[in-house]
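Lab meeting notes turned into a lecture example. A postdoc, R.K., suggested we walk through two folding results consecutively so the class can see how the record format repeats. The first protein's sequence and structure tokens come next.
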Amino acid sequence: MCWTAFVVNAKKGCEIYMIESVSHITFVVKNLDKTTALFKEVFDAKEVYYSDENIHSLFKERFYIIGNQWIAVMEDTNIINRTYHHVAFKILDSDVDIYLTKIKALNLELKPSRKRVFGEGFSIYFYDYDNNSFELHTETLEKRLDSYKEIDKLFL
């Protein structure tokens, strides 16, 4: 029997397939120019593509590289509400104040951080001009899981 992480192949039986990585993350915004300034200032994004009026997808778009991640930003006037959906970028503890200064200089709205457990790291949450939510986080997945394991041991 093949599980959902497998594909049935009549000749070979079950073959493993897996997601390789995150391909890209897409945001829809009202103003590409304003968002470009935000991405370059806060995230040090490198712009690698601008469609201008040559629309190949649904809307006018720009592509950036942030860290090693491809980020796509499309322009549309139909922006809806705020949610907890967000993208989190890893930053160093020592850079928290630098990022807070950049966010405040762009007049972006900071969100209160959620309650944290010890060792989980520090986060800055903020909204861009189009209600997209971002997090700048100081720790790794491994550190978070270790923190959760330690907390869970206390309550066993």
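The second example is placed directly after the first for contrast:
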Amino acid sequence: MKSQDISTRHDIEVLVKAFYGEVRNDALLGDLFTRQIGSDWEGHEERVCDFWETVLLGTPKFKSRALLGHLEVDELCPLCPFHFHHWCELFQGAVQSHFEGERAQRALCRAAAMSATMQTQLLRERGCPLAALKA
């Protein structure tokens, strides 16, 4: 059921909970996230809510580097473009199932940009010479 646009922390919590509900049960991503997060899904979701609150509402709550956790996952199971594409599909589904409007669109655009940036950063960390071409 679509609501209005994303406008509060509660809206972000609804989005993040819906998204991670899908991720936990996903055949491709569920195990990767569980290996990294362990049993602290609540703590992870709280940090992700802080991130999106900073991005979408301008509240300066998120002060971490998102790449670090992804580097650890990449060491265990090299992430490929399909992982990121699928992550974007699940995120897009969660946004579009619950919200519509300017901030919802901004969330989708930001997620796609983050996906591309994260892939480039992981390639750089692996020493891939092609990653330098995207800089």
